[in-house]
Amino acid sequence: MRSYRRHRLLVPVLLCALAVLAARPTAAHKEPGSGPGTGPETGLSAEVVRLYEEAAVATQQYEAGRKQADVQRAEAQRAEALLDAQRRDIAALHEDLGRIARAQYRSSGGLPVAAHMILADSPESLMRGQHVFSQADLAVNNAISKNRRAEARLAADEAKAADRWQALERRNTQLAALKADIEQKLETARSELQGQADAAVAAGACRGAARLDQPATGFSEGDWVAPVETYELSASYGSGGARWSNRHTGQDFAVPIGTPVRAVGAGRVVKVSCGGPFGMEVVLKHAGGYYTQYAHLAALAVDQGEHVSPGQWIGQSGTTGNSTGPHLHFEARVTAESGSSVNPVSWLAARGVSL
Questions:
Q1: Given 23, 54, 163, 269, which residue has the most CB atoms within 10 angstroms?
Q2: Looking at residue 135, what is its pLDDT?
Q3: How far apart, in whole angstroms, are the C-alpha atoms of residue 211 and residue 324?
Q4: Quick one: pLDDT at residue 243?
């Protein structure tokens, strides 16, 4: 009888356990956008960053080649001036040879010097004729040798200058082709990245963060930096225009799609959004109760709740949401929500960052 009761109690316990197990989510299941990205979009973000780095290196090499070409061009101009001087010297040598020949002809009455020596009527005339012949022969030989050396040196210098110039032109042509090829690949990758971002914004669902291997920043915890490394300032805080319902609430940084966007200071990610007028955006909370917003992104590199350090990449710039072109919209706020912004240029300046 006791055994039967134990079995009767064991059945509901097992059923409850099975229900609990069935209700628990599996470790492999994650909500969209809740974890780091590992799909093709992550690879594309990394590819854009890699191509940016390659384009920067190629541009540096190309610019260095152009500077070298300018130096080489100046050297070529100096070499050409020297070559012109050599050509004038050779022309003078030719004139000397002609003058010697004419002098010989006049002094011998039209006969060769050797014939005058044969026809000499006294030993004194013979000696004079021999001396004249020796001097003339030496002058002619020296002039001819000097002329030949000058012509050989001129030909060698011209060939050397031409070879160096042609080698430089070939190298610069190769660098220009390499630069153009990288920029074409970069443009294609940027277009694909923006296309993925537009799809995510249209769906209102952020993809997982694309974990990018960024170089060491070298910033300490209390440092403040600009939100992008290289930029041009465009629309400023408080400016008016048809694009905004009131006044512009941030500072725009004109940068190409895919440019790494940095946290201006240490903080925590309090908002990641992929819909609305700001498109794909990130909001950070900093010490002292201030917030910063980074909007119109093309990719995210952080998830909500993460802590970030100064200069850490938190996303890549784009043109999502209400945007007329690639740029980063940056705001400094006193709350996490829109409508509480302060002048971001002055806010950064107070922290030692001049834009």
A1: 269
A2: 64
A3: 28
A4: 55
* Predicted confidence band of residue 115 (pLDDT cuts 50, 70, 90): low
- Of 260, 250, 251, the closest CA to residue 232 belongs to 251
What does DSSP assign to residue 255? -
| DSSP string across 288-308 | TS-EEEEEEEEEE---TT-EE
What average pLDDT does the chain have?
Answer: 79
Place of tokens 């930096």: 225
Distances (CA, A) of 318 to 44, 126, 304: 14, 100, 20
Q: What is the CA radius of gyration of the chain?
A: 41
User: Tokens for 271?
Assistant: 């908002």
Picking from 335, 336, 334, 355, the residue whose alpha carbon sits closest to that of residue 345 is 355
Q: What pLDDT score does 92 carry?
A: 76
CA 302 to chain centre: 26
E strand residue ranges, 192-250: 209-210, 232-233
For residue 178, give both structure tokens: 């390499």
Length of the chain: 355
What distances in angstroms separate CA 209 from CA 35, 41, 108, 276, one per listed residue? 7, 9, 101, 19
Residue 28, pLDDT above cutoff 60:
no
Residue 133 to residue 95: CA distance in whole angstroms: 20
Residue pointed to by tokens 């022309």:
91
pLDDT in tens, 223-267: 999 999 999 999 999 886 555 456 889 999 999 999 999 999 999
Question: Rounded to the nearest 5 degrees, what angle is found at the Cα of 34, between the Cα atoms of 32 and 37?
Answer: 80
Strands 209-210 and 36-37: parallel
Q: What are the Cα distances from residue 230, in Å, to 132, 170, 239?
A: 81, 31, 22
Residue labelled with tokens 């959004």: 273
Question: 9-13, 195-199, 203-207: which has the highest mean pLDDT?
Answer: 195-199
